[in-house]
Amino acid sequence: xxxxxxxxAVQLDVASRFxxxxxxxxxxxxxxxxxxxxxxxxxxxxxxxQKISEYMTRAEDIKKHIEKEKQDGKYHxxxxxxxxxxxxxxxxxxxxxxxEIVSEVWVEDPYIRQxxxxxxxxxxxxxxxxxxxxxxPCKVKTIHLLTSYDEGSGRSQxxxxxxxxxxxxxxxxxxxxxxxxxxxxxxxxxxxxxWMIKIGRGLDYFKKPQGRFSIGYCDFDLRPCHxxxxxxxxxxHTKKI
Length: 241
Known about the structure:
- It contains 6 helices and 7 strands, in the order αααβαβαβαββββ.
- Helix 6 links the parallel strand 3 and strand 4.
- The chain is elongated, with a radius of gyration of 22 Å.
- 24% of the residues are buried.
């Protein structure tokens, strides 16, 4: 298993898929270290240790390369969330980019407006996202939300819920600014440290839970997802037209 994992790491490395390659190198090294512990043949141990040392060196080089790309703003990471996949709660996607200097967040999503089943509870999802920001480690002071008005009879409920979220955030020293647009289509989230996250389905990539007392109702890491793609950029690497 260790040999197959590092083989995959090398393939990804050659293909310049460095983020995925690094994960495979790290997993492969751990598996090979277990093999070394279980091997009594000293010659085999020596060969394994040599290979592990080579893989560790390459993994460190890749890690430095990724960090440099982040600092230079040339980093682009794409995450493909498969249909019914789990383990993709908001912390999983955003935590790496919510550094301590983040104090301002922009959310652009046209569908933060309804709570009934057809919308998969988009207002609740926005609330969960806000809860993640409040928990830190960032020190968010302002959240800007740009969305669209509910087109039906749910507008008053939309306004009431957003006002409640706004008041609740104020208790934690966070200001929520809400604006509406009838022409907004794109979905993106930006942090004032330069990171930008684009999710094909916006914040509503989770499937409706089977029931209020089913696993995944409270913990989004356990909630099955709809298929979607997440693209992560730095604003240094984007061009304004």
